[in-house]
Amino acid sequence: MINKSVKVRLYPNRKQKEQFQNNFGACRFVYNHILDRLKKLYQYYPGQYRLNIKLINTFLNQIKDENSFLKDVESTSLQQSSRDLYKSYMNFFKNPKTRFPRFHSKKKTRLSFRQTVTANLVQGKYFKLRKYGKIRYRTSKEYINLLNNSNVKINSITVSCDNGEYYAIVNIEIVNDVLFDFTGVSVGFDVNSNRNGWLVSSAGDKFRFDISHENQMIKYLNRQLSLKQKGSRSFNRLQRRLWKYYNKRTHKLYDYIHKLSKCIVEDFDTVVFEKNLGSIKVLIGGEQNSVFPLMEFIRLLEYKFGWYKPDAEGVVFVDPKYTSKTCNECGYIHNNLDVNTRNWICPECGSSLDRDINAAINILNRWDNGDCLVKV
C-alpha cells in the first residue's frame, strides 16, 4: 500500500461557503490559543510539564468550553489542527533546524482545515462531508473512478480556499500496480534562470516554460484594482478576474512540473542535482515576484521515484563547487569566468562549452566518480 493525494475542485453553495469560512477561522483560533497556552506554561513552569497529546487535548477541551461558538464547527477538524501544532512542537525539539511554531495570521496563513472521513465520503460526483452534507466536486474521469473504487482506503480530506476557489485534497491508500522499467541511465541537472532554460540536462536538453501572459494580466489588474474603491461592484469584479489569473498561473505551473517529473522518472534511474539547491531561486520569465517552486519539484521527483521506481537510486545531490567553471573534457578550472558568459572556450584543450550544459555534465560526473555523495 502507498499513500497518494488526489486534488479536486469543490463547488459548495452559499451556506456551505459560510460554514467553510467559519471552520477556517475556528481552526486558526484553536491553533493560536493552544500555542499561547503552551508558551505561558513553559514560561511560568519550566521543566514541570512534559508535552504530550493528552496535554494538547486538555487545552482543546478547555478552549471549547470557554468558547461556545466552537461547538458549531466540525469537531474532528479542530482535533486535527491541535495535532498539527503538537507535531510542529515535537519536530522543533527533535530537529534543531526546524523553526519554532508560529501563530497563524489571518492574512498570511492558508485557509484550510482537515477532517476525518466516514465510509460513505464519495457518492458518485459528490462528497458527503461531516456537518456540511453533500458537495459537488469536479476532476478527471481517472480520479473519479479512483475515488469510487472500493479497494481504495480514504484516510482524510483537506478543504482549502485559494483566491476564492475551493479545493479538496483527499489522502488515500492504494496498491500501486504501475511500475516503470529500469533504463540504467543517469542524468545531471543544472538549475538556472528561466531565460537560459530553467533546467539544463547533461544530455543538452533545456527546459523552458512561459506564463508571461498571466504575469502581465496580474500586473495590469493590480494597477486597475488600486484605482477602484474597495468593496464597490467594479472592485469586486476586478478582484475576481485577478484571482482567476492567479489560479491560472499556479495551475499551469504545477501541471507543468507534475508532467515533467513523471517523464524524468520514466526516462532515468538516477537524477543528480546540486547540493545547495534550496538557495537557488528560479525566476519565472524574469519576474522578481514570481519564484519557481523548485523544492516542490524535487519533492515530486522523490515521491514519483518511490511510486514508479522504488528500487532506483532516485534523487541525489553533489557538491556544486566549480561545476560551471570546470571543463568537462580536461578538468581545467576557469577561475576568471564571468557570470554573464554563457559560452566559453577552454584555454587548455580548446573545447567549446555551453556554461549550463557543461555544469550539468560535471554534476553527473561527480556522482559517477563517487565524489561528495549526498542521497535524499
Describe this structure in words.
β4 and β5 form a beta hairpin. The chain is an alpha+beta fold. The longest helix is centred in the middle third of the chain and has 35 residues. Among the domains are: 68 residues, no CATH class; 81 residues, no CATH class. It contains 8 helices and 17 strands.
Helix content: 40-55%
| Strand-pairing-aware structural class | alpha+beta
The DSSP helix count reads 8
Oligomer: single chain
Overall, the morphology is: globular
Indicate the mean pLDDT: 85
Kindly report the spatial arrangement of strands forming the biggest sheet.
2-6-7-1-5-4-3
Separation of the first and last Cα atoms: 22 Å
Q: How would you summarize what this structure contains?
A:
By secondary structure, the protein is α+β, with helices and mostly antiparallel strands.
Please name the defining characteristics of this protein.
seven-stranded antiparallel beta sheet, 17 strands
Question: Topology of this protein?
Answer:
Layout: E1 2-11, H1 14-44, H2 53-66, H3 75-94, E2 111-116, E3 122-123, E4 126-129, E5 133-138, H4 141-147, E6 153-162, E7 165-174, E8 186-191, E9 199-201, E10 206-207, H5 212-226, H6 233-267, E11 270-274, E12 283-284, E13 287-291, H7 294-308, E14 314-318, E15 343-345, E16 352-354, H8 355-368, E17 374-375
Parallel strand pairs: 8-11, 11-14
Antiparallel strand pairs: 1-5, 1-7, 2-6, 3-4, 4-5, 6-7, 8-9, 9-10, 12-13, 14-17, 15-16
